[in-house]
Amino acid sequence: MTPARDDSAPDRARDLALAAARVAEETRGTDIRVLDLREITPVFDYFVIATGSSRRQLHAMADEIEAVLKKEHKDRKRGAEGYEEGRWIVLDYGDVMVHLFDAEAREYWDIEHLWSDAKRVPVPAEAPTR
């Protein structure tokens, strides 16, 4: 049985996931989703899923997510896979896994369907700061 969670408590993993989603959006990622897995598995808290239009764009998203999470959230990725191939890049932040796909790989692997019991987390629009 999963322990009850306090939704009013600060959730660092959620903040990290939402920050990664915003960066994916800023770097022109599409179909961005944040899935809350806390009630489904003890392994991860959140998945961030986004689609890029090219290998170059997927690399740009991955690089910028890494830079922003390191600078603004003082968090470093624990690992990454798929960067060289550039069709499905996974960034491991412990409780948060970021999945960046090209359209074909995203459709093939269909992670949202595999984790269809997960709650979707809305990604709030951030007010412009510039």
What does this structure look like?
The structure is a single chain. The protein has a single domain (12-120), classed as Beta Polymerase, domain 2 (2-Layer Sandwich), CATH 3.30.460. Strands 3-4-5-2-1-6 form a six-stranded mixed sheet. The longest helix is centred in the middle third of the chain and has 19 residues, at 55-73. It contains four helices and six strands. The protein is globular, with a radius of gyration of 14 Å. 35% of the residues lie in helices and 24% in strands. A hairpin with a 3-residue loop joins strand 4 and strand 5 (96-102). The chain is an alpha+beta fold.
Strand and helix order: HEEHEEEHHE
Total domains: 1
Assigned CATH class: Alpha Beta
- Strand arrangement in the largest pleated sheet: 3-4-5-2-1-6
Report the average pLDDT across residues: 89
Rounded to the nearest angstrom, the distance between the terminal CA atoms is: 46 Å
Please state the structural category.
alpha+beta
Quickly count the helices: 4
Computed over alpha carbons, the radius of gyration is: 14 Å
Number of strands: 6
Mind describing the biggest β-sheet?
A: 6 strands, mixed
Residue fraction in strands = 15-25%
Report the CATH superfamily. Beta Polymerase, domain 2
Low-pLDDT windows of residues: 1-9
Reported by name, the CATH topology is Beta Polymerase, domain 2
What is the share of helical residues?
Answer: 25-40%
CATH architecture: 2-Layer Sandwich
Morphology: globular
